[in-house]
Every structure is written in C-alpha cells, then in structure tokens.
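Anyone? Bumping this.
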Amino acid sequence: MLKVPDHQVAGHQASDGVIGPLVDDSGHFYKPLQNDERGSNEVAFYKSFSSDACIPAHIRRYFPIFYGTKDIEASDGSGLHPHLILEDVVSIYQKPSIMDIKIGSRTWYTQASDDYIEKCLKKDRETSSLSLGFRISGLQMFGTKDSEFWKPGKKLTQSLNSDEAKLLLRKFVSSNMPADSDVCPDSALASNVYGGPAGVLEQLLELKAWFENQTIYHFYSCSILILYDKEAVLKERSSGALIKLVDFAHVLEGRGAIDHNFLGGLCSLIKFISEILTSPKEDLHL
Amino acid sequence: MLKVPDHQVAGHQASDGVIGPLVDDSGHFYKPLQNDERGSNEVAFYKSFSSDACIPAHIRRYFPIFYGTKDIEASDGSGLHPHLILEDVVSIYQKPSIMDIKIGSRTWYTQASDDYIEKCLKKDRETSSLSLGFRISGLQMFGTKDSEFWKPGKKLTQSLNSDEAKLLLRKFVSSNMPADSDVCPDSALASNVYGGPAGVLEQLLELKAWFENQTIYHFYSCSILILYDKEAVLKERSSGALIKLVDFAHVLEGRGAIDHNFLGGLCSLIKFISEILTSPKEDLHL
C-alpha cells in the first residue's frame, strides 16, 4: 500500500537505511517525524494551523491538509515510527513539474543553537538565499515525449545569481527541453502557468497580501512548491498550476511582527516571475 | 555661518575632538565624509542617484537633495575636511519631532569584512532589527509647552519588542507628553501625522511600491526619518509630515534582485503604523 514517492525534488528521501516519506494511492503523504524538536515543532504547527479559525480559506488552500499523526512502518524497515499524515499535493498530477523554492534570506532564528545558526548562515551565504531572498532547492520537469525528464542536482539550482535564477524560472515553463543545454528556453508556457487569473503570480500575490498582515507565524526554512502538468497546459491551455507551502519544522510564533524575512523573499520571487511575464521572449544565456 | 545642528537624533555628532555634521542658515547640511570606503561609497551613491533618470520624481523627494562635495573647516577644528553638501531636511520645521528608524533585519552584506559582519550581526540580534526588521535609532519630540522636550537615549529605543515599538510609535504622535512615564499616550495626532492622503503611511506605501520593483540599489544600514511639527499639526490640522531616507554609506548595486531586506523591514514598519491608525485608542502599557 505505502510506497516511496515518485516525485520528490528536495528534502530527506527514503533509501537504504535512510528514513523518508511514503505515499499511498489515496492521496496521502506520510512524513516521518524527525526525532528532535523539529518533529514536535512541525506537529505543533500543523495542529495549531489546522484548528486556527483566523486563517482564511483562500490562504488555507496553499497549505497541505493535515490528517493527524500515526505510527507506521518506517521506509527504512526500522519498525514503527511516528509520521505526519498530510495531503499528497502532487497526487492530482500525472506528470508533475515541480520546483521547490526555500523562501527567506535567513533560514535561522535567534533562539536556535549557535551551531545551527552558524551552519544555516554559512549555507545562506553560499547559496542565493542571502542575495536573492530565496534558493531553489530542487526541481523536476517532464517534457512532452516520454523520454524527456530533467531533474538537476542541488548544486545546479541553489547558488544562482539573478540572471541564472531568471533563466531557470524560464526553463521551468518552456516547451522545449533546454535542460542543462544552451538551447534558449522559449517560455511558451509562461502565460498559462505563471500568468492568468488563476496562475502562479496571482497565487503568490494573494499569499503576499496575507504575509503583509499576519503576525501569527514566522516561517523559517519553509518552501514554496510550484506545481503544474505540462501536458495539461499544452492540451487545455489552462495550467492547473498550484503553489503549496511545505516544511514547517522551523515555524515560530510571530510575537506581534509580520514575517518580514519570508515576505521579503516572496516579493523577490514575485519580481522575477513578473519580469518573465512582462518579457517572456527575452534572450538570456548563461 | 556654520553651526552644529540643533536637531540630530542619531549618528556621529560633533563634539570636542569628534567630527560631526554642520548646517548653515540656508538649508544646507554638511556631512563630513568618513575617511574609509564609507565616505567614498556615500559620495558615489549620491552622484549616481542624483543623475539617474530612472528614479521617478515622486521617489526622489524622499531623498535629501545633493549639492556636491566641498572641503570645509571640520567641526572639531582639525582643519579642512571633505563634506557632502546636502539638503537640511529638518530646516523647514520650527520644532521638528524626529524619529530615525534603521530599516532592515540585516545591516551587513556578504562583501564586507568578517569583523564588520560579526559586529553588525551581533548588534542586529541585540536590537530589534532581527525580530522586527527595523530598529529605532533615536528620536526627539517637542511638546506644546516650551519646557516640553523628550529625547530618550538609544538604549531606550533600539531594542524594543513589538508591544514596546508600537507604544513608542504611539507616543511619537501623542499630544500628551508620555515620555518615559506611565501616562497612556493619547495618539491624538496619529490621524494627521500617520494618516491622511499625504501622511506618513501613504508616503511609506509609495516607497514600498518602488522597492517592490527597483533592482538598482540595495540599502544596508539606511534610515527612514519621520519628521513633523506638533504645533503645526495642532494649529492647522495638517501635518506637513515627511519621510526622508538618509545614510547611504552602505548602498550596494542591486544586481538584478530587489532589496528584499529593506522591503521586508519597511513592510513591518508599515504594519505597525497601520495598526495604530486602525486602533488609535488601544490601551497599551509596558
């Protein structure tokens, strides 16, 4: 019944001796709780968030549905282990193109241990987090032919400068498969995936409006997933593109201030996506 | 002709043996260039900014006018020293109430020296920069009586939590002089200073719209001044309140990304001011 997910682009992945998430065929995603306070933090966040009447429905849809926790056989065969039961946000797609974007120039917070802060700060400086306000932690793309599939490694995605980030965000919505090659991405799907009244940009702007106001949570090391199905876009000219927030092991109370760290990174991402929509054919080469 | 300014709430101040800014009676502010790269950086910024045709006029008005540089006798009597000649932004006020708010959760940038980064990071963590996205570096307030004047020290303003910051932002627009005391600030001037079509909030929102889009400059360790004249507000019911950006010794090129660090802090400040306008009478005590 449970199996390792086909479509995971970042985070801990199940393999020999390594515990990782599992999915079933009913649209559930089982995320093993980390043993330290990250596990309990993430459960606490989902419990708080899912029962908080102040979260508007149009914002709630950007978060995976939370179904509770359960002890199940771990993916590494080590026996029963507590898991979060979440909505499998990619289960509605046949061939999901997925981008995982870790939001915020700062992934650490002052209450964390010195070791953790030092590790995060080093990584924020080495990657594009500090410069761009986000880093692309992973992605996968399907082409129109069965053989076409691209899943670049972290090293190729997380330390981009602004031209490189814009190019990758263009490749992600191109009908040609530029992959690592020098082929110029045609951005053919940009207007359907990023644009339009239900596209990614409008969803990001809706999320931004909430972040300009909410002082309940501060989201550190949290990712936005961008999800769409290329075949559906090419056939139906509508994207069904979705954004989803994931990874809440480092959510803190807002204590009366907005999450300026997340909001700043989100606005930076919005600026990149807006520019692609404004000039989809711009010639950019690395 | 030149004298030490009457109304300086933060930054290096002229005193025996210490070089500081000077003003004349024609509305000029003479800022001594720092000897290291901070001095040359600030000159380079003012030259670039004042000649950049891409800066819209409605944004340019938030920056002091730049009149060039000049060698003049330094305030500490040490002889000729190069100074920036700038608009004296407080010269139009008789009794200016001033708040200096250093914007951004991060005052350092990755190109700086390790020592500088460590010093800034420590200060960002000790003050409210990291938590609120800004810190109040200084302020002064006049009352309606001649004897009423309040200028709390840095220690009282720069390390506030969100309740304390909101209280101080209320005190700053109150007709009673709560100063350090327990008197509840009446926020009587909030709607005229912070609110209204030409008030502080509208000006901050205009600046925000520019920061959501501009990728020319990144402003580290830069301050927003909020300026108004209490007597004018009480007499004319219009505030003449202004915001001005100052301190550009640490401005960097944007390199294709928005200044998400400044923007995040600015949005946080906007949220505080909005809340005061929404509930001006809220009872807040420290």
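Late reply, but here is one note on the structure posted above: Chain B has a mean pLDDT of 92.
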